[in-house]
């Protein structure tokens, strides 16, 4: 049960941090549509008793500064069944939104496949994470870490040029 509480505490911290930064994106991938809202937070507000809302922690005022929807593809009954079609639907709704890609490197992710399926037309659109493959390279020695990061950088750029 402590893992659950730790995860909840972590989510509250991430939400608070995002609200302090001021802008957050919400992406909903459903069976019938993909929707994205971009919100700008204006900071903490105090609820008025006249509104019928009691004091609740973390309330904030926000404005919707962007919204997009498109027909969903590759999702059936709430499960992704064709990832490439789902990715295309998300890219249609938010074409410049970068995707976070974990698992490259030590975890065995397919770098070539990720780049082939995830890059936008301008050769961008991905944030590739390979932390374990870099920070533990060569037992954590600085020269090995630098070499691992440079090697991955060269591999990514070589595959992007194809």
Question: How would you briefly describe this protein structure?
Answer:
40% of the residues lie in helices and 25% in strands. It has helices spanning 2-21, 83-93, 111-118, 131-135, 142-161, and strands spanning 23-29, 33-44, 60-71, 75-76, 79-80, 99-101, 126-128.
Would you give an account of this structure?
- There is one protein chain.
- This protein has 162 residues and is of the alpha+beta class.
- The chain has 2 domains: 1-82, no CATH class; 98-162, no CATH class.
- Helices cover 40% and strands 25% of the residues.
- The chain has 5 helices and 7 strands, in the order H-E-E-E-E-E-H-E-H-E-H-H.
- It has helices spanning 2-21, 83-93, 111-118, 131-135, 142-161, and strands spanning 23-29, 33-44, 60-71, 75-76, 79-80, 99-101, 126-128.
- The strands form 3 sheets. It has a 3-stranded antiparallel β-sheet, with helices on both faces. Strands 4-5 form a two-stranded antiparallel ribbon.
- A hairpin with a 3-residue loop joins strand 1 (23-29) and strand 2.
- The longest helix has 20 residues, at 2-21.
- It is globular.
- The chain starts with a helix and ends with a helix.
- The relative contact order is 0.10.
- Mean pLDDT is 81; it is low at 53-57.
């Amino acid at each position: 049960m402590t893992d659950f509480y730790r995860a909840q505490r972590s989510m509250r911290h991430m939400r608070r941090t995002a609200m302090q930064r001021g802008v957050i994106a919400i992406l909903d991938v459903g069976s019938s549509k993909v929707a994205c809202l971009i919100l700008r937070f204006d900071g903490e507000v105090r609820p008025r008793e006249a509104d019928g809302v009691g004091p609740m922690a973390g309330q904030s005022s926000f404005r919707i500064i962007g919204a997009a929807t498109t027909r969903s593809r590759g999702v059936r009954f709430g499960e992704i069944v064709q990832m490439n079609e789902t990715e295309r639907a998300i890219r249609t709704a938010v074409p410049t939104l970068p995707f976070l890609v974990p698992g490259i490197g030590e975890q065995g992710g397919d770098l070539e496949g990720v780049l082939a399926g995830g890059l936008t037309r301008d050769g961008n659109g991905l944030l590739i994470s390979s932390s374990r493959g870099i920070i533990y390279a060569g037992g954590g020695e600085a020269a090995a870490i630098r070499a691992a990061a440079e090697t991955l950088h060269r591999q990514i750029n070589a595959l992007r040029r194809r």
